[in-house]
Amino acid sequence: MKILSKNKNTQGVILAIVGALMFSSKAILVKFSYQYGLDKLSLLFLRMSFSLPVYLTIALVQRRKSKANDLSIKDWGVLVVIGIIGYYFASFLDFWGLQYIGAGLERLILFLYPTMTVILGAIILKKKIKKVQVLAISIAYLGIGIAFFDQINVVHNDNFWFGSVLVFLSALTFSFYLIGSEKLVTKLGVLKFTSYCMVISCVAVIIHFNLQSIVSIFSYSWEAYMTALCVAVFNTIIPSFIISAAIYRIGSAKTSILSSVGPVFVLIVAAIFLGEDITIAKVVGAFVVIAGVWLISKGKK
After folding, report:
1. What does the alpha-carbon distance between residue 172 and residue 92 come to, in Å, rounded to a whole number?
2. What CA–CA distance (Å, rounded) separates 208 from 281?
3. How many CB atoms neighbour CB 100 within 10 A?
4. Closest listed residue to residue 235, CA positions, set 12, 18, 79, 10
5. What is the tens place of the pLDDT at every residue in 269-296?
6. What is the DSSP code (8-state) at residue 46?
7. Under a CB-based contact definition with an 8 Å cutoff, are residues 104 and 276 in contact?
8. Which H or E run includes 255?
9. Separation CA 175–CA 275 (nearest Å)
10. d(Cα 34, Cα 227) in Å, to the nearest integer?
11. pLDDT of 233-249, one tens digit each?
């Protein structure tokens, strides 16, 4: 039993890190998509439109395999709420914020959600905050603070703080999604929960686009559509199932803390592909963040 438990924990840690890396690279592709003329709502619409057939197919297949009454009315209500919050509202705010701030700084602000998740878990789910979690969060945040402190001081952008607030609100809404998903993903299983949740999110985005957008979705270049397709496949479909699987194995709090690898990853990739500065402070901060990730991954022992 101990061996099985250890394997489950190890699998969860690996899944959480891989999912975090794939989700984090979204900021890079979003920045590229803006260079091709896509606006935030059009990009979100294309992302969800490309994703919807996959999630809808999986949802129908999974529903046929199990009982039709696997969810109560209350469960459906929670599912609709977290679906709208987690991958519609949080994504919209994030895409909006990325119009005004760099990909590296976006990861820094978005990474506030692990702290929010742990605190909300203590309030809503009555989970005790362990000392190792507090220590790991503190170390990871120290590293992020070191890595990005100099960037905050050199930004010259009238909309800098507005974009920062938007990304902060995205982190807050996503933390609510993680908390709300933990019980339902255990009840439904990874595939069914993720597909149900994402279908709801896709429908919400499509409705929003058709009600508000005045731009023709067929007016962009082929590069814009290819970038949106990559965002859908590599930053949405695949990591959404990976993160749900990680939550199923190790819980939402530990999954969110392990996501501290995301800012480090974006720091390097943004420097290579977007030309964002990489300094000694950022390198030192990266090693401190890795130390925090290592600590939380060993916390089970």
Report:
1. 13
2. 41
3. 20
4. 18
5. 888 888 777 777 777 877 787 777 667 6
6. H
7. yes
8. helix 252-258
9. 30
10. 10
11. 999 889 888 988 888 88
